[in-house]
Design goal:
mainly alpha; about 65% helix; globular
Length: about 140
């Protein structure tokens, strides 16, 4: 029993150390890390997120560039991030999703699907609702 407790403590410390390392990342660094982990190049993410290559480059490397909330969500959907990964990336941006906001509730529902649908598919549904489109709206 004490072996299990020691093992749990060790795993908890490893998890916390990894989390602390990730908290030092800025938005662009985290986006670049996730792209590498998920196997996306700028071009493939551009296609998957309906954003231009230039926009992807700016999101990753220009600290003064402020992407829209819809661009950040398009990147999350395009890379098929888990809900936790998406929320972490959004947290690194200038945005927060609030459960009491009707628009944010829709975005949270989109993120809960973790890439099950494409940005284009979501945009069709958003257009039918009269809402802002994700990405560049292509």
């Amino acid at each position: 029993m004490s072996d299990n407790r020691e093992l749990m403590k060790m795993l908890s410390k490893e998890r916390d150390a990894a989390r602390i390392g990730r908290t030092r990342e800025d938005f662009g660094e985290m986006m670049e890390r996730l792209m590498k982990e998920k196997g996306y190049s700028g071009t493939t993410l551009s296609e998957a997120s309906c954003l231009s290559d230039r926009t992807i480059r700016r999101m990753k490397g220009d600290d003064t560039y402020e992407p829209t909330r819809e661009m950040v969500i398009a990147v999350c959907v395009g890379m098929k991030l888990t809900l936790d990964e998406s929320l972490d990336l959004i947290h690194k941006s200038a945005y927060r999703l609030r459960r009491d906001s009707p628009v944010d509730a829709v975005y949270l529902e989109i993120l809960r699907h973790e890439g099950e649908y494409t940005v284009t598919q979501w945009n069709i549904a958003l257009a039918m609702m009269g809402a802002k489109l994700l990405g560049g709206g292509r």
